Amino acid sequence: MQNYSDLMRMIQVGELNKTYTIPVGIDDDKQAIVAGGFFMKICQTCTFEWYQVKRWAEIHGYNFQNDGTAFYNKESGMKPVTKVSWRDVIVWTNALSEMTKYDPVYRTGSGEIIRDSRDINASIVDKAVQTNSNGYRLPTYIEWEMAARWRENSGDGSILVGERYWTPGNYASGASACFYNVTETREVAWYWNEPGNSPISVGQLKPNQLGIYDMSGNVWEWTFDSHPEYSSERILRGGSYYSYSTSMRVGEVSSFLPNGVSSNFGFRLVRGSTA
């Protein structure tokens, strides 16, 4: 996939005004209720997009702590952006919303749009309120899992929960067998021991049944939520090129501090209400 318009495409996850009961966790031993009808970007946010929006944002009063992926040219522009913190992403999504004439989602408790991810503004960003505005945002960690597990049919070991079938928690997203089946996992996920051991351009491998690429592998994806046990950290999903196959599992959860940056941390956009 090399067409930029394809990279920007979003796909609806579930039906609007309908809730879904999904299995949660590697062992599928928990359940969660998720509102359907939100739209998720089919590809991870690429470097080209990041710099395009960042340039607009800085002209219009936005500030960022981190620049993002240091090296940028035509080839790297289609790779997922990395070296951006959770705080940077919160501010960037607001900038994208304003740039495209949507209402920014992330605001202070008094309703002000958050436009500064620098360390001097850390306490404000970390208390960001995720409103129901119509702009772009990060998925919640459970919205991410719903999209990663989505199946259109039974078979391939799928499990029945809430009157529909889902991908098991120990599969990569889109795979038809457990994570330790190397052939099946590598069809959908770019992870450790690949040549060069670095991210690849988004959308190169097989998508999941929703048509979403790289839900497992390539780069970890920031979500909005705090970790339930480590409240100062924000949840990451999906694993990366630098991860072993265990991190490709759709039930796998990781986390990091909101100011953390890494060459294997990136993100994916959604739009739509969580209500």
Give the secondary structure arrangement, pairings included:
Elements: H1 4-7, E1 10-13, E2 19-24, E3 30-35, E4 38-41, H2 47-59, H3 86-99, E5 106-107, H4 122-126, E6 129-130, E7 136-137, H5 141-149, E8 159-161, E9 164-166, H6 182-188, E10 220-226, E11 234-237, E12 254-256, E13 265-266, E14 270-271
Helix pairs in contact: 2-3
Short structural description:
The protein has a single domain, classed as Alpha-Beta Complex (paralog of FGE (formylglycine-generating enzyme)), CATH 3.90.1580.10.
Describe the fold and architecture.
- This protein has helices at 4-7, 47-59, 86-99, 122-126, 141-149, 182-188, and strands spanning 10-13, 19-24, 30-35, 38-41, 106-107, 129-130, 136-137, 159-161, 164-166, 220-226, 234-237, 254-256, 265-266, 270-271.
- The chain has 275 residues and is an alpha+beta fold.
- It has one domain: paralog of FGE (formylglycine-generating enzyme).
- Strands 1-4-14-7 form a four-stranded antiparallel β-sheet. A four-stranded mixed β-sheet has the order 12-11-10-13.
- A hairpin with a 7-residue loop joins strand 10 (220-226) and strand 11.
- The longest helix has 14 residues, at 86-99.
